[in-house]
Design goal:
It is a single chain. The chain is of the alpha/beta class. The chain has two domains: about 250 residues, Aspartate Aminotransferase, domain 2 (3-Layer(aba) Sandwich), CATH 3.40.640; about 130 residues, Aspartate Aminotransferase, domain 1, CATH 3.90.1150. The chain is built from 13 helices and twelve strands. Helix 3 crosses helix 8. About 50% of the residues are buried. Bound molecules: pyridoxal-5'-phosphate. The site of pyridoxal-5'-phosphate has 15 residues, from helix 3. Its cofactor is pyridoxal 5'-phosphate. It catalyses: L-methionine + H2O = methanethiol + 2-oxobutanoate + NH4(+); L-homocysteine + H2O = 2-oxobutanoate + hydrogen sulfide + NH4(+) + H(+). Pfam families: Cys_Met_Meta_PP (PF01053).
Amino acid sequence: MSPEARSPLSPATTAVAAGRPARVQGAPVNEPVVLSSTYVSTGTPGAEMLYTRYDTETWHPLEEAVGALEGSSQPALVFSSGMAAIDAVLRLAAPGSAIVAPRHAYLATLTAAREQAAREGSVVREVDIADTAAVVAALAPADGPAASVLWVESPTNPMLEVADIPALAAAAHEAGALCVVDNTFATPLGQRPLAQGADVVVHSVTKYLAGHSDLVMGAAVTDVAGLRSRLHARRTTGGAIPGPFEAWLALRGLRTLALRVERSQASALELARRLDAHPLVAEVRHPGLPSHPQHERAASLMDGFGSILTLRPTGGPDAAEALTRDVRLWVPATSLGGVESSLERRRRLPAEAGTVPEDLLRLSVGIEDVEDLWEDLDRALRATAG
Ligand SMILES: *Cc1c(COP(=O)(O)O)cnc(C)c1O
């Protein structure tokens, strides 16, 4: 069977095959990096390239690949960071309306939403995104403005709450709101929100898509007529564009997305199971554990359970902090989604939500050998306990 006859291709294949140059004799297999701020141009500009802040061909292979991975018929739009993409998408909210968002959304997303709401006479309603009835009630309450945007993160950061995206997208549309999903944690291999009814997907490409902790970038994907051009216009005016080398490097990272995610999520589940039985661990959270409150929902809506888990050591916040110093292989650092495993006590950040336990460590599992990861954690837990 020809590859065309089997389409749509699996995401693992799309990550490798999308965004390649046309197959003509002597063509390169990768698109070249174009280093030019402007293009030769006379008269009234047409569809050709004009100026790199508007568009440049070096973004296109990455935009095609990310758009295809999210199941959109339109290419993604890449931005200089995840937050630049999020800021552009938040501006789709109507002034004087409500933005409904998870109380455990990415911190800077909540900050950007609150700042925008204050400028525009809007409100941000923070909800438990796993509680579908509560989210639906927050979309159009009797005593406040109706929502124009429902912001979803699933699993959330760092509490790993899992949202019922199909139900939430349907409810958002019924209330006249757009449904946006930050798909950074799940990746398009784990979850395809557009197919579940969402209007826009955003990514911190910095994390899994690029995957090597060596660049900062964002992307937005939509299949809704008119929305991509509004986001494109916002990117052009705001000017939050990625450089050509970063776009090339992110695509290079994206080619191995499936291998990295398959490995890291298998290791995350194994580590979650072992840590769950560890005498020095009080609580483990991972959507793949039957003890997770939305385990069944994650099993039915996601492919795999992601590569993030959280743990709370029995010794409290001091033990959690000590663990980040006692590990030798795990890297103590913020961020996630790199090939290297990392961990962080989230409440060390003063702005982290007060509902996140003081002693909670967020672990981003990388692609190292799982036994090495386990031994390092087990040894550090014992060293911490004295
Ligand atoms: C890191 C992150 C962001 C922000 O992305 P940057 O690339 O750091 O700007 C947004 N959402 C989630 C879920 C993230 O993990």
